[in-house]
Amino acid sequence: MLNRRRFLAVASAAAGAAIVNKSVPAAAQSPVSAASSSEDLVRYVNVFIGTGGHGHCFPGATVPFGAVQFSPDTGIRDWDWSSGYHHDDTTLMGFSHTHLSGTGVGDMLDLLLVPRTGNVVLEPGTDPEARKNPEGTYRSHFSHDDEHGEAGYYSVLTRSSGGNKIKTELTATERTGLARFTFPTGEPAHILLDWHHVYGTESEVKSAELSVVSDTLVMGGRRVNKWAPDREIYFATEFSSKPSKVEVFVDDKPSDDRSVDGRNLKVAFHFEPGSTVLVKSGISMVSASNALGNLRKEQPGFDFEAIRAAARRMWQHELSRIRVEDPSEERKTIFYSSLYHMMCAPTLADDCNGQYRGLDKQIHQLAAGEHNYSTYSLWDTYRALHPSFTLWQRDRVPRLVNCLIRMGEESIYGFPIWPLQDGETYCMPGYHAASVMAEACVKKIPGIDWKRAYATMRKRNMDDDYMGLPDYRRMGYIPADSGGESIGKLVEYVYCDWACSHVADATGHPQDGEIQRRRSQNYKNVFDKQTQFIRPKLASGEWIPNFDPKATGHIPHHRDYTEANAWQSTFFIQHDVKGYMHLFGGREPFAAKLDRLFTEQPGVTNEVVADMTGNIGQYVHGNEPSHHITYLYAWAGQPWKTQERVREILLTHYRNDYDGLDGNEDCGQMSAWFVMSAMGLYAVDPVSATYVLSAPLFQRVTLALGDGRELVIEAKSSGGNREQDKYIQSVALNGKAHDRLWVRHDDLANGAHLVFTLGSTPNKLLGADEAAMPPSLTV
């Protein structure tokens, strides 16, 4: 981090240089062209879906994959406020520039702006009780009736205690935010910039600097140690009009210095009653001067409507990559809101000059055309989000994968697990950057150096002493008495082995590939044929006693499973379903056990797990370990049950409502399940480059694949009742009968026409033959 003297020198020099910058407007320089669809798709986005319940979504302004998420903060401490916002609240603290989308852990909320009337109040009101009774804090009251959100824009009316309403409007570019505050007449106005505000407690801020460069420009930087360790973030904020007074506060005490450091830094900018003030801010992980450079490049002026319109055009363009034709406006709203959430992460983490701070905490320069990203929720998103990108965001996939490769090469933490800005959170078991890389390798995504990719993943796979991997390699399982989540780790590691084996083969390491494929069958070592469950085993080789398939753990103080119990984990195996079915005694016993999963009494027996929601029996749609399970019937010879269950989930577990998601949205994964399933495709085993088919929800879906190619998916009703016609009667691919209920990626990726004929009763013969089974490790 910059020391104070160096920071101030850089800030002053950057400010002087930036004043004469003559960049083109952000709207004109955007790399996104005009939308290819004439229909306004942005109108279908409801940014408030998932902002209630356990969805953990934010409603504020962002652009596709943008670094800035400019959004209101109503809470900063409890689990359901991981995004800084919850729909239950009627007071808010202010508006910050960085947020996580749908995660189960909180961080960020950098650079809070607080518009208020009356006297300056420095107490933030972080205590949960202050959300209801904000007296004595800088919180403001608001009503959801006065709140409006759309893709790229947010507005709300707030009221300080006893004051009239202030109108706040927010919009964003990729690396900057722009606010327009309209203050009431008759009351003195001010905007408080709180550089101490952060998710968690005040102690998370380890050091900070701030400089009021001029009456209209303030710059700063800080180091935060929360979920992402030792995260550095910098900003440059500029006001459209000169304030009547500027006050600097250190530890909530007035300071005569215009440049300060410490941990608790705030600045109040005072304006005349009735003022309309625009405030634009750039952020950077590299330096305050880079933050100012981002600001000057993406927002050279203060044209709110132009920036808002540019953000809307960006969203329209990206949403238009998938066009849905269907009479149900409600379902189109859910679909395009899901597509919107799928572009809230990963997020850009580089500057306009191509610099970024790596996971080695050093500054790097990107090659032309490359980007650095953050917020890879890989344990979640390898399942459906990234597979979907290989169809409708194919041009972005090389940049996403190359970023993961660089992270693996640069990181002081090892192979990326859940990277957030310049830190590694180590969140969740497995190392699914390998899964994302391997899928792209098998699908022959161009522009990626696979030898570099394999070098990074091999070290984690073969050598690293990481979260039980030595026992996994040596013993073939992870003893439950050696640490927590032994089964949760193992089921992820077998899939990561499967993934690595494909890249090993592709890069000339067949011996590695053979070892990895063999280890990917380690699931057999923890399958108990007597109970027909995957269950924890002790270091002695004995099964853990007093086994309960509904319990998350059997040893005090830790779980055996990861956000799951034995019911969900037993059906986790994605890559070798055919081989796995043999352990049950064949297809019929496997299908019978699968049936029981959906009818067993829901819940867990030893604790309340907030993540395990959206139950159908012991199936838990609110969390990722269950997401592929409905599709396993395709291997069991009963794919009509997949069609039945998938349609049930599509219609009853996704709603056009603030509480419209079963659980955490998880950086696009919960939404990606809906989007892929509604189109009739799901990648149970992404690395195999195949999709299992189910009945599409919409009449027609067209995906723009690039270079003028399109994938058209049609659903025709044979009985004339679309609501009841949920079973596939037949499938045609490019005009030819398709007698199996799965397709290869290559069948679709160069353009295709996939036609489903649906009916109200199941065709139990279609896809039932063992020869029609989707691929599996075991042939």
From TrEMBL:
<dbReference type="Pfam" id="PF17678">
    <property type="entry name" value="Glyco_hydro_92N"/>
</dbReference>
<dbReference type="InterPro" id="IPR041371">
    <property type="entry name" value="GH92_N"/>
</dbReference>
<dbReference type="InterPro" id="IPR008928">
    <property type="entry name" value="6-hairpin_glycosidase_sf"/>
</dbReference>
<dbReference type="InterPro" id="IPR014718">
    <property type="entry name" value="GH-type_carb-bd"/>
</dbReference>
<dbReference type="GO" id="GO:0016798">
    <property type="term" value="F:hydrolase activity, acting on glycosyl bonds"/>
</dbReference>
<dbReference type="Pfam" id="PF07971">
    <property type="entry name" value="Glyco_hydro_92"/>
</dbReference>
<dbReference type="GO" id="GO:0005975">
    <property type="term" value="P:carbohydrate metabolic process"/>
</dbReference>
<feature type="domain" description="Glycosyl hydrolase family 92 N-terminal">
    <location>
        <begin position="44"/>
        <end position="284"/>
    </location>
</feature>
<keyword id="KW-0732">Signal</keyword>
<dbReference type="InterPro" id="IPR006311">
    <property type="entry name" value="TAT_signal"/>
</dbReference>
<keyword id="KW-0378">Hydrolase</keyword>
<dbReference type="GO" id="GO:0000224">
    <property type="term" value="F:peptide-N4-(N-acetyl-beta-glucosaminyl)asparagine amidase activity"/>
</dbReference>
<feature type="domain" description="Glycosyl hydrolase family 92">
    <location>
        <begin position="290"/>
        <end position="760"/>
    </location>
</feature>
<dbReference type="GO" id="GO:0006516">
    <property type="term" value="P:glycoprotein catabolic process"/>
</dbReference>
<keyword id="KW-0326">Glycosidase</keyword>
<dbReference type="InterPro" id="IPR050883">
    <property type="entry name" value="PNGase"/>
</dbReference>
<dbReference type="GO" id="GO:0030246">
    <property type="term" value="F:carbohydrate binding"/>
</dbReference>
<dbReference type="GO" id="GO:0005829">
    <property type="term" value="C:cytosol"/>
</dbReference>
<feature type="signal peptide">
    <location>
        <begin position="1"/>
        <end position="28"/>
    </location>
</feature>
<feature type="region of interest" description="Disordered">
    <location>
        <begin position="120"/>
        <end position="144"/>
    </location>
</feature>
<dbReference type="InterPro" id="IPR005887">
    <property type="entry name" value="GH92_a_mannosidase_put"/>
</dbReference>
<dbReference type="InterPro" id="IPR012939">
    <property type="entry name" value="Glyco_hydro_92"/>
</dbReference>
<protein>
    <submittedName>
        <fullName>GH92 family glycosyl hydrolase</fullName>
        <ecNumber>3.2.1.-</ecNumber>
    </submittedName>
</protein>
